[in-house]
Design a protein that fits this description.
37% strand; 6-stranded antiparallel β-sheet; mainly beta
């Protein structure tokens, strides 16, 4: 990489270019505790260097050393997801009596905004005072089948060992224009023992939630929000990831592990609540996630295909990383009882999630 320009806690470097010549940048953020790298391609979190209990920093996010890895087939490593994170059944929904058909890009359903979602775009970037970068993207009316123009900004800011991701999306249509739906998240794969450490089964997962969104065999919500009591989805007390992987509970069998959304009590716009706590007994690293979103989705890498070309040439394998995705419930447009994801002309959706790294 070349053309590096340094500031006190922020620098940029070239990260290659698309086939049409569009340049991709890597933005480096460092607050003395965490070092984070963000790509303009997909808005991806390409690196998170976090200290262990002895103060040694290691990269805890899965990804690639070059742009080619991100351009090829890969499971959304570090990417910003939109317009709609997670699944929409059969890619269909209705707004104001009109039906919309999205791409059915995964097992007959719409997943993570489609095959050309926000994870496959080059975002505009500018620095934020302190230690941060602001990314921006315009999604035109009809993009991937979604109605209305959507103007999106995402801010990555770093302070005191915490990474905050702030999202903003405005329905830019004039009054009388179409409504749309929006559900944004980040899809970083994390391994607190280090990105190349392999199986996350011994790491402890905790989700302080009493209810989850029950799903069918295709991982589409049924509309039920049952209590977690008596199921392996009861993570109110920390337990190793591996403790639930081979459970015979139908929800675990269907997903091959954890791939579920929990409803967060008390979360509201501008009022974040704890969403998850993941810890690694070996390194002592602890991740605490808080959000003002209504749900958190915990995924234990059950569907990861072997990827031989990860960072440092490491071969990433199934269950080699976990994702903590804060967002609205999957398939919300088809479930009137779920918190709404509708955004009307002139309205702006705002949310924030904080990833705090500590040690124990």
């Amino acid at each position: 990489m070349t053309a590096e320009t340094d500031t006190t806690a922020l620098s940029t470097s070239d990260f290659g270019a698309l086939a049409d010549g569009t340049p991709v940048q890597r933005w480096h953020l460092d607050d003395g505790t965490l070092r984070v790298a963000v790509l303009t391609y997909g808005g991806a979190l390409q690196e998170i260097l976090a200290p262990d209990r002895d103060g040694a920093r290691a990269d805890v996010t899965l990804g690639f050393d070059d742009l080619a890895g991100y351009l090829g087939p890969q499971p959304y490593f570090g990417a910003l997801i939109g317009r709609y994170a997670n699944r929409i059944a059969a890619g269909r929904f209705r707004l104001n009596g009109r039906g919309y058909q999205l791409e059915a890009n995964h097992a007959g359903h719409h997943l993570h905004g489609g095959s050309a979602g926000f994870d496959r775009r080059v975002w505009r970037a500018e620095p934020i005072d302190g230690c941060g970068v602001r990314l921006a993207l315009t999604s035109p009316d009809g993009d991937q089948g979604y109605p209305a123009r959507l103007d999106v900004t995402v801010e990555y800011t770093l302070a005191g060992g915490a990474l905050r991701i702030g999202y903003s999306a405005t329905n830019a249509e004039p009054e009388g224009g179409p409504d749309t739906i929006v559900n944004l998240t980040n899809h970083a794969y994390l391994n607190l023992a280090g990105h190349a450490a392999g199986d996350i089964g011994a790491q402890l997962a905790q989700v302080p939630a009493a209810r989850y969104a029950r799903s069918d065999a295709d991982l589409i919500p049924t509309g039920e929000l049952p209590e977690v009591t008596g199921t392996p989805l009861d993570l109110r007390a920390a337990r190793p990831f591996a403790a639930g992987w081979d459970d015979g509970f139908d929800q675990i069998v269907n997903a091959g592990g954890y791939d579920h959304s929990w409803l967060l009590d008390g979360a509201a716009p501008g009022r974040p609540v704890p969403a998850a706590r993941i810890s690694d007994p070996g390194s002592g690293r602890v991740l605490e996630v808080s959000t003002d979103q209504p749900a958190v989705h915990l995924y234990s890498g059950n569907m990861m295909e072997p990827l031989p070309g990860g960072k440092g040439g490491h071969a990433y394998r199934r269950r080699g990383g976990f994702c903590v995705e804060t967002h609205h419930l999957p398939d919300s447009p088809n479930h009137p009882g779920f918190p709404t994801t509708v955004l009307r002309p002139g309205q702006t959706f705002r949310t924030g999630t904080t990833f705090r790294f500590t040690t124990a």
